[in-house]
Amino acid sequence: MGELNWSSAISEIGPNTIRLRGYPVEELMGKIGFAEGIHLALLGELPDPATATILNAIFVSSLDHGTSPPSVLATVTVASTGAPLGSAVAAGILSISRFHGGAIEDSMKAISEALAKAKSDGLTMEAAALSLFESYKSRGARLPGFGHRLHTKDPRTTRLLQLVDDLGRGKDGLAMARALEATIAKSTGKPLPLNVDGAIAAVLLDLNVPPALANAFFMIARLPGLVAHAHEERSRQKPMRQIHPTDVTYDGPPLRHLK
Amino acid sequence: MGELNWSSAISEIGPNTIRLRGYPVEELMGKIGFAEGIHLALLGELPDPATATILNAIFVSSLDHGTSPPSVLATVTVASTGAPLGSAVAAGILSISRFHGGAIEDSMKAISEALAKAKSDGLTMEAAALSLFESYKSRGARLPGFGHRLHTKDPRTTRLLQLVDDLGRGKDGLAMARALEATIAKSTGKPLPLNVDGAIAAVLLDLNVPPALANAFFMIARLPGLVAHAHEERSRQKPMRQIHPTDVTYDGPPLRHLK
Amino acid sequence: MGELNWSSAISEIGPNTIRLRGYPVEELMGKIGFAEGIHLALLGELPDPATATILNAIFVSSLDHGTSPPSVLATVTVASTGAPLGSAVAAGILSISRFHGGAIEDSMKAISEALAKAKSDGLTMEAAALSLFESYKSRGARLPGFGHRLHTKDPRTTRLLQLVDDLGRGKDGLAMARALEATIAKSTGKPLPLNVDGAIAAVLLDLNVPPALANAFFMIARLPGLVAHAHEERSRQKPMRQIHPTDVTYDGPPLRHLK
Amino acid sequence: MGELNWSSAISEIGPNTIRLRGYPVEELMGKIGFAEGIHLALLGELPDPATATILNAIFVSSLDHGTSPPSVLATVTVASTGAPLGSAVAAGILSISRFHGGAIEDSMKAISEALAKAKSDGLTMEAAALSLFESYKSRGARLPGFGHRLHTKDPRTTRLLQLVDDLGRGKDGLAMARALEATIAKSTGKPLPLNVDGAIAAVLLDLNVPPALANAFFMIARLPGLVAHAHEERSRQKPMRQIHPTDVTYDGPPLRHLK
Fold first, then answer.
1. What is the pLDDT of residue D1?
2. Do the chains contact at C243 and A1, CB–CB below 8 Å?
3. What is the interface size between A and C, counted as CB pairs within 8 Å?
């Protein structure tokens, strides 16, 4: 049966031995945070402190967005049938796809395309951004990562970019995202601000995260939110209720601030 | 349609406003880590620093355990069919159930039962532990949270308990887990050490996590590991390969240590 | 690796050989219907013609029930995110659990319990039915399989029982279901008719289907309905729409009859 | 909330009224088989008798293919963790995607492309088949629907095509599939026979099934097989066993024939 042998580079397991990407797990425990562990598991190396701060900010920014996202509605719908919590959140994970969460990957690819064009054609950021914008426009498509149905000035975007700037970690990805934002405003006369998906896309690119993992970052960030909604459904609601997608009221703690 | 109105206490969302359990998300970003955000989302309050350290250690301890867990085999099997990454990890999440991950919840309930008996009957920890052990023995059941097929001295358990002791955060849950461990050794003559599930169970109890969320903590911790395996499958393997459950070799980085 | 060898009694596969429960599949094709094949796959033997007719009626009765079941709402919610059709219907399948579809299994167990009591205590059907009814009542529980939120006289129940009676296939299961229906009416003064779940439960019992497969029969019957809804969502609706659980209008063909 | 109103053309539901695509469900029960009901649910109309025979043959042909398909391995892996049957088969459904089951849709598209070319360019079937074959060859791709890793002469294909021919239901789809088969044999000197995916693809095309539903037909056909495997796992095996993908022995009924 030797032909079935395969290899994996993630964990080395033996009796009383558990190593993640080479590190004994007991040496990591108490020394690194969960976000650093996620970076290690997914990308193979521990992040430096500034990268860890940015990753934590991204994960915290995406933990939850209320009850309206389809991932939450799918989760509470399944939870309402008496299914196990794992089935409820699995339905939520299945909802994170092309149109829900998918904009991060689309935006990473768009920014990468513009950066590649700048390099191959020797263009400035601005010229490459204009070229990409016009290419989307000519096929009637919208650039992913700009504008939001609800937030005109998304506080997550502002804070994430401020943090990245403060830590001096904005690179070509973020520069191109800003060039695209400026291009849209100039070309259309209507500013369409970089949204949280576009901002995360730019920052993940600058952290060398492959676009194929973008949706996964969002799933990892959002799973605790899905769990919170499934648990709330099971704790507070009657089974098999009819779930209205928008007629829902917040009844949690009032506005408060970190001390 | 007013009868369909419902309430949720997790997030308050409005134009340019995203508050998690009352906190503006932009104030949390850059200030708290992902683990603290998870605690806030699930339990409604931010953890104190010692609790955050312990939570991070628990999440890091459970990030991955190689290729043998059924959640990983289900994930790579689905990934191998060319399904999207979300479908692959959803299959992994569905595998985290009664016998895989479920021991944490079972162990939390067993420890709670012993603690309740100590209180209601005015027993010492030792007497209540013995009573629970004998009740399991009389119905031919094994106490959950003790012994491991592979690890006789699980490094995750040792490290987690050391950390909790150092931080002075062991309470009744951990005391009862230790009383149960001593009872088993004394009653059977064969020490069956507290395993990582039992240790996490005791610690989560002492952190006031409800047992109904135990499986969810494990899912949150393990999802990044599942993503890493799905991504590796898609990056390194041919589609539709036959996946041997044990004939697999580690080919990642050699042993290394934190600097 | 011999210790990993295992056995399966469902299909025998070899080069140019596919046998289902011993039958060459090419001999079955064109000779038996899908429902008979399902019976063969699940229970190991081909059904006789009357059983096949009843199974077909059960599957047809449960194909769809409009948009209100949570399995459909979960399916269209996931479909609305641009996820593949398989992800959408998987979310629907995950919704078929304790409170949605689960009543068939619960009802099979309740009827079996009454039948076992009749046998062990030498009771008449009526006496055993009364005993079961009172046992449920004493713990404040409702007998599963009776009453429906919408249908006071469910046309599926009437037709299924008529068919079973015409074919002379009602046995102890159905007799006990009717005894329970009579007991409820007599004891409470309020008739609570056998619903479609209870009728299917009684009939499946009389066909020797194990209760552990009851939910699966419902999943098999309903999957085509879920597919129809997912396909309709993808064909007719815009992505990421908000999906109201009840404010939906039927716009398909008007009432028509078999020729 | 009127803006949330939506429409569905599948079922009309009211008190004591359940109509599928306009037909009262109680009129269908006992009169049509499950396969005819599936056709009605998915395509909106009842099939004629020859179509129903062909559909039944397709569903029966695809009920199961032993333990080696990834959908079965995912299903038994999840079942082995003690997860509910619905979670186990949902993981199997998620495995039916691009490389597993997906060949039917790919093949329908390829055949359609060749038919469209024949029509638009006024080519014979043979000329259009050659053109498609060369277009695939030039980009190093293989035509989907031809050849099989295990079956050189798949008994399902032979039987399905014989049935379709006997019923006089082969149309352009099947003619083009045969033209492609002849082209491959002639062009390469190595016959690569139409496989079961390609045969089903050709026949579904001739039955006017849209390619977007091809994978769904396979899911519907295979779900009972997945259920059988999940049920066998739960009935015969110990939890959390290691599941070898190929070292499995058939121990069901020996070869037998329809009487």
1. 42
2. no
3. 105
